[in-house]
């Protein structure tokens, strides 16, 4: 069993194996584990590096805009996130946010919007952000209060967003605001807000346990042309959920990458550390822990690449993506915790590889839908499928 043995599963084509292999070789030679210091500067440098080497073309859609494919290939996206996460959490973050931040444009933008933003995102010359969450609208985005009022050919935005990845770093923010066409989720629209737009400001940088650039941003009479609206008015919630459906599966892949890295470090430790005259690996409790870690990783990978494969076949994967995200992040937390335990005191020393992994994995169980929200999504999809089956059987 190797960390790449899953590439032989029937989910993948030869091009996927070649992509994962190329990323693994490139990552080993080019990605350092440096995370402290100037996080924003390091993130900028990583975006430029990922763009110049062609990796970011897999994070957008449309060959005419510099993408690898006309539609996002979910398996490629997931393989790249898994591979980058094995090397560096910040490299994975830099890649993922280029995709998530521009995802709504790839999926729903018009030709002018795509031409203006996507090539620069793919080249790493422009940094993207996705601004949905608010203080009282995180797990329940339909409750957001940031408002956009139509005034002639412009919208005027007022409100704030928080926990925004790439906040203060991004060149543009895909922002969701209430436009009032209908109550709740049906009255939200999506906009592209350039960072230099008057009325936009970064109110607060936010330090988190895994060093990533996050911020609270505000809008005060922030006027944007109607041409900066993505899709139809009132379609914003649909756009946000469709974007998250694509990238939620990739979160599971990143978690799997973190877990693979933890298992590799744990195996190295167990097979080299001597305790009471024996290798740490010789103890049955260590072997059992390593076996459980490997099993958790394979189970998570199977769910992840099932969801990715199904989406690439054109199937709606709301439930499958939620299952993958929940299982992979929760499993990775257990795997990494076991790795820390195998290292003992060394595993909690700041800067040690498994200590860094411990800080990286914890936020993944929250962002892009906390585990509890994934459970609700899965249950609702189950009920929907059951009711549809009952309806079909009644008609028969």
How would you characterize this protein structure?
The protein is α+β, with helices and mostly antiparallel strands. 52% of the residues lie in helices and 15% in strands. The strands form 3 sheets. The protein has a 4-stranded mixed sheet. Strand 2 and strand 3 form a beta hairpin. The longest helix has 35 residues. The radius of gyration is 22 Å and the shape is globular. The model has no long low-confidence stretch (mean pLDDT 94).
Per-chain topology:
Layout: H1 14-30, H2 39-52, H3 74-87, H4 89-108, H5 111-123, E1 128-131, E2 147-151, E3 154-165, E4 172-178, E5 188-194, E6 200-206, E7 214-225, E8 229-230, H6 236-270, E9 274-275, E10 278-279, H7 284-312, H8 318-343, H9 353-364, H10 371-395
Parallel strand pairs: 1-4
Antiparallel strand pairs: 2-3, 3-7, 4-5, 5-8, 6-7, 9-10
β-strand percent reads: 15-25%
Question: Please, what is the average pLDDT?
Answer: 94
| Shape category | globular
Biggest sheet record: 4 strands, mixed
What percentage of residues falls in helices of 4 or more residues?
Answer: 40-55%
Structural class based on helices, strands and sheet pairing: alpha+beta
Cα(first) to Cα(last) distance is 48 Å
What is the H/E string? HHHHHEEEEEEEEHEEHHHH
């Amino acid at each position: 069993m190797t960390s790449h043995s899953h590439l032989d599963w029937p989910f993948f084509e030869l091009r996927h194996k070649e992509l994962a292999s190329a990323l693994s070789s490139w990552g080993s030679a080019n990605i350092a584990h440096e995370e402290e210091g100037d996080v924003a500067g390091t993130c900028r440098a990583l975006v430029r590096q990922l763009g110049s080497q062609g990796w970011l073309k897999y994070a957008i859609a449309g060959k005419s805009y510099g993408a690898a494919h006309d539609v996002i290939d979910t398996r490629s996206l997931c393989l790249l996130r898994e591979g980058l996460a094995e090397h560096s959490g910040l490299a994975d973050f830099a890649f993922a946010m280029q995709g998530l931040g521009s995802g709504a444009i790839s999926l729903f933008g018009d030709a002018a919007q795509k031409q203006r933003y996507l090539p620069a995102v793919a080249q790493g010359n422009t940094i993207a952000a996705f601004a949905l969450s608010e203080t009282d609208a995180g797990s329940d985005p339909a409750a957001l209060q940031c408002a956009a009022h139509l005034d002639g050919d412009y919208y005027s935005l007022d409100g704030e967003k928080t926990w925004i990845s790439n906040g203060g770093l991004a060149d543009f923010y895909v922002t969701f605001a209430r436009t009032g066409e209908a109550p709740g989720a049906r009255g939200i629209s999506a906009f592209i807000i350039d960072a230099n737009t008057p009325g936009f400001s970064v109110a607060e940088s936010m330090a988190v346990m895994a060093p990533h650039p996050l911020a609270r941003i505000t809008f005060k009479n922030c006027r944007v042309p109607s041409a900066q609206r993505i899709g139809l008015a009132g379609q914003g919630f649909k756009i946000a959920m469709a974007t998250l459906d694509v990238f939620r599966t990739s979160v599971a892949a990143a978690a799997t990458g973190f877990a693979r890295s933890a298992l590799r470090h744990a195996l190295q430790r167990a097979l080299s550390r001597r305790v009471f005259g024996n290798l740490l690996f010789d103890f049955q409790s260590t072997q059992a822990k390593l076996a459980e870690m490997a099993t958790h990783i394979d189970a998570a990978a199977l769910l992840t690449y099932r969801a990715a494969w199904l989406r690439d076949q054109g199937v709606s994967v709301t439930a499958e993506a939620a299952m993958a995200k929940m299982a992979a992040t929760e499993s990775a937390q257990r795997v990494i915790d076991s790795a820390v335990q195998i290292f003992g005191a060394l595993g909690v020393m700041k800067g040690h590889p498994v200590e860094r992994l411990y800080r990286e994995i914890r936020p993944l169980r929250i962002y892009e839908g906390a585990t509890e929200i994934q459970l609700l999504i899965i249950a609702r999809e189950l009920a929907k499928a059951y009711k549809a089956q009952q309806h079909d059987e009644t008609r028969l």
